[in-house]
Amino acid sequence: MGASPVWDAVVVGGGIYGASIAVYLRQARGLARVLVLERAPALMQRASLRNQARIHAGYHYPRSLTTGARSLQNVPRFLAAHPSALRRDIVSVYAIAASHSKTNTRQFVRYCREIGAPLHEPRPALAALFDPAQVESVFEVEESVMDLGALARSVDAALTKAGVEVQVQTEVRGLRKLASGALEVQVEGQSGGRGVEARHVFNCTYSALGRLAGAAATAGLRHELAELAIVEAPPALAGVALTVMDGPYFSIVPHEGGLHTLSHVRYTPHLSWSEDATISPAGRLAEYRGDSRFERMIRAAARFSPVLAHTRQVGSIFEVKTVLQANEADDGRPILLERSADFPGLYSILGGKIDNVLDVLDRLDAEALS
Ligand SMILES: Cc1cc2nc3c(=O)[nH]c(=O)nc-3n(C[C@H](O)[C@H](O)[C@H](O)COP(=O)(O)OP(=O)(O)OC[C@H]3O[C@@H](n4cnc5c(N)ncnc54)[C@H](O)[C@@H]3O)c2cc1C
Predict the structure, then answer these.
(1) What is the DSSP letter of 327?
(2) Which among 11, 74, 113, 361 counts the fewest CB atoms within 10 Å?
(3) For the chain, what percent of residues have pLDDT higher than 70?
(4) pTM of whole model > 0.85?
(5) At residue 225, does pLDDT exceed 70?
(6) For ligand 1, which residues put their CB under 6 angstroms from it?
């Protein structure tokens, strides 16, 4: 970077949010000098890689009409930005549990109609995956799955094309207000510590959001240490994503290499805690030694879909999932975009799912980034 003059924007965190915002700042807002700082050895290695890869099309949020409707609207925009990330070989199936579900078939059908999400009669082979005594209804839906490796490559290409500078293995440790009105971003990299001056700073560090000064709304964050089991599913599940709604149930979604990820609302979160400045989510994840809950997940899932009893675990992914506490009841996934009162020019940004980044960009359109 050399003896750098002031950056127009420094984006902290190189996941899908930080990378997309950096591209937006260059291309849509015309900022000349935009820098992404990422502490990992490469971009897109954390939550943006370690997730269930669903391109949400609304079906998952029957208790939050806004999240559902926005998801559906974002799908074509997301795919226009990252067409290579779409897996075209996937069929998605949603079933409504017969007991204890927070939604029933009538409500789910009405909700999908309201947001404009199509529901189809399932092919017999797909309907046959479920125990009819355990589910009220089964639908084939129009929801896609991402190739997360291809998404990471698409993001890299977009950053290069936009002329965004990227520095990996560079951790941001703090911020300081300068007399000039600019911010000093304090970084620790391979060559030691230094300060980087910026007019705008975008904190896109997801679970680490509250660790940078100046983000008041992070008090409302909740973190979960989540397990996704990586499994070899029986052949009947090849290219098929199954989700049972709406409560303590499971989903199994195609992953890379012919494998699937399995998650269960009850067993996937091993720990959960409210934002607390004394707890580092990354530290908690690194230290965690809990056993896999695959056996419990698959036993619960096989009650609904008996064929799943023949699923074999090949590993697990653990990652911290961060959501806004305010949405625990409706399971909605709105965004957090907060302009700091203490540090002019600092924005804190968080989205509960990948496509929500488009909502952030829409909101940023209204911000004067002079
Ligand atoms: C288990 C699980 C399943 C999920 N399933 C889905 C799904 O199916 N579909 C969906 O749309 N969403 C899903 N999500 C949510 C989705 O993954 C996240 O909303 C999204 O990836 C957040 O992107 P991000 O860029 O904010 O975070 P990240 O990708 O985590 O990026 C943040 C980056 O900031 C870096 N960083 C942190 N602190 C610092 C620092 N001090 N200095 C420099 N860099 C720093 C990190 O290393 C990281 O690279 C899931 C999440 C989890 C955990």
Answers:
(1) G
(2) 113
(3) 97
(4) yes
(5) yes
(6) 12-18, 37-40, 45-48, 51-54, 56, 171-172, 204-206, 208, 226, 228, 319, 321, 351-355
